[in-house]
From TrEMBL:
It comes from Myroides phaeus. SUPFAM superfamilies: S-adenosyl-L-methionine-dependent methyltransferases. The keyword GTP-binding does not apply. S-adenosyl-L-methionine binds at T127, G148, D170, N213. GO terms for cellular component: cytoplasm; ribosome. Coiled coil: none annotated. It is found in: Cytoplasm. This is Ribosomal protein L11 methyltransferase. Signal peptide: none annotated. Methylates ribosomal protein L11. The gene is prmA. Pfam families: PrmA.
């Protein structure tokens, strides 16, 4: 997947960067990286439009000086990146996520992930929190959906935690292929991987648990489709957004009939748990 990156220099930095991220989050930008001079914002090329920065009011404000440059970024080969500087990930001394070239551990859940071009190594705060959600909530005998599965790391852990049926969906072809490989690599025969988006969901209450670690805009746009296929009493876990996005996510979820139950935070990233009444 190809991305368009905008690298912003912001002065004054702290307040300006916070406002800029909030405004860009209303557009199609799906990830941000704070830098020494401001922030870098990333949007899928397929979602980019020439007027994407229109109506970003802070860019017109005389209280801030903001400059930027734009560049196109091709897929990152995560295999190469991992081999350069990857260390195994330890989540609460219970779950270890490692690459194939690392030695097997004695952890209760020892997961081997080879990410290729996919997002979801466990290093990112959102994936880490979603792993913790799976570890601290019941998956035994559950029918689980991993929406926007990336490497299928969450689907794999749900399977290891006793889920009987796990469906994993991602729109990116690299993720689709990589998820199948990782499921096989971890001997998870009950994981079914599909290439596509929320339009694949049939709108029937067939899942007991839904895991959706995507981004704010996609969650808000597709939440009704997720909830339509969540069984009564089922749990849905969201991540992929910042603390300032919580009110929008919670408002949408509650309007669609979900009840808030739990919030995790890590470095301004958030994971929320809701239950369907």
């Amino acid at each position: 997947m190809v991305y368009i990156a905008y690298h912003f220099n912001v002065d004054p930095k702290e307040v300006g960067t916070e406002i800029l991220i909030a405004e860009l989050g209303e557009k199609a930008f799906e990830s941000f990286e704070e830098t020494a001079t401001g922030v870098s914002a990333y949007v899928q090329k397929s979602l980019w439009t020439p007027d994407i920065l229109e109506n970003i009011f802070i860019l017109q404000s005389d209280q801030f000086t903001i400059t930027y440059r734009k560049e196109e970024i091709a897929q990152v080969n995560w295999n190469e990146e991992w081999e350069k500087n990857f260390d195994p990930i330890d989540v609460d001394d219970v779950c270890y996520v490692r690459a194939p070239f690392h030695a097997k551990t004695e952890a209760e859940f020892d997961i081997v992930i080879e990410p290729k071009m996919s997002f979801g190594t466990g290093h990112h705060e959102t994936t880490f929190m979603m792993i913790r959600q799976i570890l601290t909530n019941d998956m035994q005998g559950k029918r689980v959906l991993d929406m926007g599965c990336g490497t299928a790391i969450l689907a794999i852990l749900a399977s290891m935690r006793g889920a009987t049926q796990v469906d994993a969906i991602d729109i990116d072809n690299w993720c689709y292929i990589n998820s199948m490989e990782n499921a096989q690599r971890n001997n998870c025969e009950n994981i079914n991987v599909f290439e596509g988006d929320a339009s694949l969901l049939k709108g029937e209450p067939i899942y007991d648990v839904i895991l959706a670690n995507i981004n704010r805009n996609i969650l808000l746009n597709d939440m009704d489709k997720y909830i339509a296929c969540l069984a009564k009493g089922g749990a849905i876990y969201f991540s992929g957004f910042y603390t300032e996005d919580v009110s929008a996510i919670q408002k949408c979820a509650e309007e669609l009939g979900l009840s808030f139950e739990k919030q995790l935070e890590k470095n301004n990233w958030v994971s929320l748990k809701f239950v369907k009444a």
